[in-house]
Amino acid sequence: MNDKQTQAPPSWALRFFRWFCRPEYVEDIEGDLLERFEKRPSRWFFTLDVFRLFRPGIVKPLKSSQKLTNYGMISNYYKVSMRNILRNKTFSLLNISGLSVGIASCILILIYVNNELSYDTYNSNYESTYRVIHYYGQQGEQPDYATLPTKEYQVWGNAPVAPSMQDYFPEVEKVFRFTSDAPWLFSYNGITYSETDILFADSTAFDVFDWEILAGNPKTALVRPNTVVLTQELAKKYFGNENPIGKSIVMDNRDPYEVTAVVEIPTNSHFKFNGLISMSTFRRSRPSIFDSWGYVDFYTYFTLKPGTSIDQLKAKVSDFLKASFPNEFNYHIAFEPMSEAYLHSEAGRQPGPVGSMSNIYIFTSVAIFILLIACINFMSLSTARSVERAKEVAIRKTIGSQRRSLIYQFLVEAILVTFLASIFAAILVFFGHSLLETISGKILPIDWLFSVSNVIIAIASVLIIGVIAGSYPAFVLSTFRPITVLKGSFKTSSRGIWLRKSLVVLQFALSIILLAGATVVSSQLDFLQEYDLGFDSEQVLVIDFGYDGEVQRKREYLKQQFLNHPDVDMVSVSRATPGDFFPNAGTGIADPVSGEITYKGPAIYEVDEDFIPTYKMNMVAGRNFSDDFPLDSANALILNESAAKLYGYPNPQEIIGKSFEQWGREGKIVGVVEDFNYVSLHEDVEPLSIRFGTQFNVSVISLKLSSQDYSKTLAELESIWLKTIPHRPFDTRFADQNFDDQYVADERFGMIFSVFSSLAIFVACLGLFGLTIYSTAQRNKEIGVRKVLGASTSRIIALLSKDFLLLFVIAFIIAVPLSWYVMNSWLDGFAYRISLGFGVFAVSALITLIVAFITMSFKTISAALSNPVDSLRDE
């Protein structure tokens, strides 16, 4: 027994041979191997012979010849899908084009939305950072602070609240303040520029915000007086590639400020700056305001200690104010998470531009609409081609294909189309990204798109979109009965027809909604541009001198020099112009009934006697400031109509001569000016007080021009300026442009919305064009017969178009109420807005219909003009 086993070849080697050898060679080669083994019974040589046979030609292919493996099945699905795509070039091109534009648009909108949602998330203390918002109520009010809406508060507040909170609340870890921005003169190596967005800031800045420190020590950067932190851009402007740390910049032609750090501010920060000056510098120059709860010029942020909750602070606010606030004036504070600062805050006086969550919802909806329209195109064309594909399904079922394999085939084809569309979409995103940045005015990072998680999401999205888009042919066409189809009695099912019509209706409805939205946005922006603001800012040149003392001392001389120029009609000096930043002032005016002084907090403008005439504002009662009344500079006040009503005087004439008290001045109301929109048209006209600006509280000069050659006039005015004020640049802007800057965000929203709405309609037209091609092809013989019987070209065109017209009417009925609701909600963000009449939607629908008919006409006219002999040749 042992001898026989010894003479037997190794079983494992024989099994290995049978596994790798081609089936048709196994019997012959195995016989030769065994014969050689009998002649030379060596197990070692037998094994060596087996390994020598492991070579091309003998080794069987990886794909089994008995049945297709999974790889073989997928390969077959891929080949068949590619053949179908290449055979139906027109429909494939329409599908791939539509999907690629839809996917690219969706990704581009996602890039924009992601950037909006990412604001301030760069901070490690993002979740635990809050800011103080302040409520400054009117005298006599007793609001319920627990239910007081955030829009009644403002972010701009006083200085002492920060240290008081640090001392009172053990939950507070760090507190940081900064002031509103201001222009400063920067001088270095004989070069002087006027720089904006320069803030005073506490030394705790880098404890609260994670700005990238490119140079310097963040712990000591803002501790000492006369130190400044620069952004990288500003540092390069003055120092080039030199290390700026330790070097000094002369600011406002007075003191040298040491550069202690260079930082880079992320683009997704809700407030930005060009430079930070140490708060100790501000405290040394004006120490009294740091104890004044009524002086407003600070923004206060704070972080909580780990394990504490903001609710613990909220519960103690009343006790805190009783212990810290020095009087019973109607003042309150609340806390707003930094996570709500950009997109969700309704508080006034923001430190920077804010976003809009409603715009995010609208853009996200547009992205979904575009992608949905692209998928509708695919499904519509699939249902339209159901008769052709039905024959394919019938033949494949006849030769033994199972329904499951047919479903896989159609899904693979849809996924392949989606994959090809995704490749083209990536190219469109690559080229469209820079255009989107230009339109939005923002830097939109896209590196996050290439993270592992997003790549997985992208692959999953391709599969999901492919499955959705290919769902109809996969799950419906695969159920067709071969006998019915092959007998020729099969027609497109009513279910398929109604599905296709439903998709067309949805497509038309989405197109009308988007076009109506774009029309409303455009009309509202035009309305803002044309609305009568109550003043005239055209051809008004504004020179910003940043409270420069030398300019203030020479202001009357400068006014006269400018007035001597033939192109200058009027000159005015003021603290601000319409659209600029302005403070509020506690102002007491005699009550109309009791005569007692009642305090409110209207906004304040400080101007000279020429301000109202320069901007062509209308006096509705009393008079303007005048040189004929020398005491106007000390005891006169002008109100707007809203301010007069605020104090109980609906008739402006009745408040003339009433006593007032404001910021250390006492006197009489001398005039009431007609309400003018000195803030954005997003808001109603607010109460405003106007008083004479003294020598040291004005910062801009307004020149009313009547020039035909602005470049020549500006050059001559600059020459006058530099002769009088040689140390300061001629920093100018036009007043109307300055006011229009408030609507930049709205204009950019309108541009983005219009671009993507146009792309959505383009994608819809691709699908409509494809359906027209197919429907005319299906009715080709009918068209031929009708032409032979005498039907006119116009009659045939009408016949081919009437079905779409009915679907369009249904879509219009659906789209109007939806678009009205959405756009009416958007318009609620404007105090002054257009009215949504039926005409807006009628025009949008008409444009959509015209575009649709133009799209269809490329094929319908061609079909109507074709020779009937060609279509009837087979009959």
The helix fraction, in percent, is: 40-55%
The oligomerization state is single chain
Uncertain residue segments: 1-5, 64-69
Mean pLDDT: 86
Radius of gyration, whole Å: 39 Å
What's the number of helices? 31
* Global outline: globular
In total, how many beta strands? 23
Structural class given helices, strands, pairing? alpha+beta
Describe the fold and architecture.
The chain is of the alpha+beta class. It contains 31 helices and 23 strands. A hairpin with a 6-residue loop joins strand 14 and strand 15 (597-600). The protein is globular, with a radius of gyration of 39 Å. The N and C termini lie far apart (85 Å).
Layout of secondary structure:
Elements: H1 2-7, H2 11-20, H3 23-39, H4 43-52, H5 70-87, H6 89-117, E1 129-136, H7 161-168, E2 172-179, E3 182-188, E4 191-201, H8 205-208, E5 212-216, E6 227-231, H9 232-239, E7 248-251, E8 255-264, E9 275-278, H10 279-285, E10 298-304, H11 310-314, H12 317-324, E11 331-337, H13 357-384, H14 386-398, H15 403-440, H16 452-469, H17 471-475, H18 482-486, H19 494-530, E12 540-544, H20 549-553, H21 555-563, E13 568-574, E14 587-590, E15 597-600, E16 603-607, H22 611-614, E17 619-622, H23 632-635, E18 636-640, H24 641-646, E19 659-662, E20 665-673, E21 688-692, E22 700-705, H25 710-724, E23 732-734, H26 735-740, H27 744-778, H28 780-788, H29 793-827, H30 838-865, H31 868-872
Parallel strand pairs: 4-9, 6-8, 16-21, 18-20
Antiparallel strand pairs: 1-10, 1-11, 2-10, 3-4, 3-7, 5-8, 6-9, 7-8, 12-22, 12-23, 13-22, 14-15, 14-19, 17-20, 18-21, 19-20
Helix pairs in contact: 2-4, 3-4, 5-15, 6-13, 6-15, 6-27, 13-19, 13-27, 15-16, 19-27, 19-29, 19-30, 27-30, 29-30
